[in-house]
Amino acid sequence: MTASRTADGPAPHGSQTEPGSLRAARTWERARSIARSCAGQPLPAVPRTLADALGHALAEPLVALTDLPPFATAAMDGWAVSGPGPWRLGGAGVLAGREPGPLGPDSAVPLATGAPLPAGATAVLRHEHGAADTERGLLHDRSPAPVPEGQDIRPRGQECRSGEPLLPAGTTVTERVLGLAAAAGYDRLTVHRRPSVELLVLGDELLAQGVPRGGRVRDALGPLLPPWLRACGAELISHERVADDLAALGEAVRRSPADVVVTTGSTASGPVDFLHDTLRALDARLLVDSVAVRPGHPMLLAELPATADGRARRLVGLPGNPLAAVAGMVTLAEPLLRHLGGHCAPEPVQLTAGSALPGHPRDTRLLPVFTAGQKVTPLPFDGPAMLRGLALADGLAVVPPGGVPAGDTVDVVELPRR
């Protein structure tokens, strides 16, 4: 049973119809494209302190606010020297964070790594290459070759000049980006707002703790999905269990203030699969209703009625089987969330099949694989309800219908890493 409104009428070119259903199955590539494009423009730009910008996407290019380094500095501990030597030893040493006076001709002054270079210095003599004659006040060079001009000096602007673009808009703010931004003079960054997400885990058969018993199984997706959603740039505002009840599910979806509602289970046509009925009752618009991919084909994407303040809302329905739900994450949830958050779409990784990668006769297959160098090897335990292979995987190989022979290239979707 489907919702009353769909994005399209007849099945699009390249789609397939699931046996026993009237729903047109999107191709895997088309489903991902719809997930990206339905988001429209990324969410608005907001200012954030460096501490609060982690995980967001830059809403504008990161441009250097200063030269880096901002002044010539010493790259090693030793002496700043002027001329070829030997040199007259000068006064107190120069430490990082101190502004030195000028250095006269044929003179030397001790200095530490990172310290500003005195005006007039032509090179840095490393500590292990210098011999100080304190009685005569001279410094001699004991290095294998004469010190060349500019040795062990980081010149001003060596890394970048003020006004130089450093990173493009859409770059994800990682710990490394925060370090660069701070070095370049930033206290705040302009980033896109994170899409808010509410996760609704459906299924009366799920246990929150302990071993499976009494015909019930552990909830694997409750622990698995929240960190994965955050890795996609989402702000998880709620994580709830919802009973297999039409009224309860309808109320949970209707009242959700999230930009994106993510559900698990209830996407097929079983006796307690109420998601399609819920979407119909809410007058939601189905954009994707089944995808020609294994595992995970009964996944869906819908536009929900807007919030009271006019914000658009979407719903991603993931299948209930764990590996099938992961397929739904990489097919629909990740492209949608990354686009809403303003993140650049990652380029596909093309690797070589180290052995044959088995495929489905008609559909794309997402296969857990282990990566070694530039080659991928399929992992066992890859059924829709299994997680053992995924736990060992570096990525999911996108295997076209019929499979990939050993030695051929294959696209690989990389999995989040911590």
TrEMBL record:
InterPro entries assigned: MoaB/Mog-like_dom_sf, MoaB/Mog_dom, MoeA-like, MoeA_C_domain_IV, MoeA_C_domain_IV_sf, MoeA_linker/N, MoeA_linker/N_sf
Example GO BP: Mo-molybdopterin cofactor biosynthetic process
Pfam family for this entry, one: MoeA_N
Function: Catalyzes the insertion of molybdate into adenylated molybdopterin with the concomitant release of AMP.
Pathway in which this enzyme or protein is active: Cofactor biosynthesis; molybdopterin biosynthesis
Family: Belongs to the MoeA family.
Cofactors required: Mg(2+)
GO function terms (MF aspect): metal ion binding; molybdopterin molybdotransferase activity
Positions of the MoaB/Mog domain: 198-339
Lineage per the UniProt record: Bacteria, Bacillati, Actinomycetota, Actinomycetes, Kitasatosporales
A GO cellular-component term linked to this record: cytosol
Organism per entry: Streptomyces yokosukanensis
Residue ranges, annotated region (Disordered): 1-28, 134-167
Catalytic activity: adenylyl-molybdopterin + molybdate = Mo-molybdopterin + AMP + H(+)
UniProt keyword list: Magnesium, Metal-binding, Molybdenum, Molybdenum cofactor biosynthesis, Transferase
This enzyme's EC code(s): 2.10.1.1
Top-level lineage group: Bacteria
Basic and acidic residues bias (residue ranges): 134-143, 151-162
Name the UniProt record assigns to this protein: Molybdopterin molybdenumtransferase
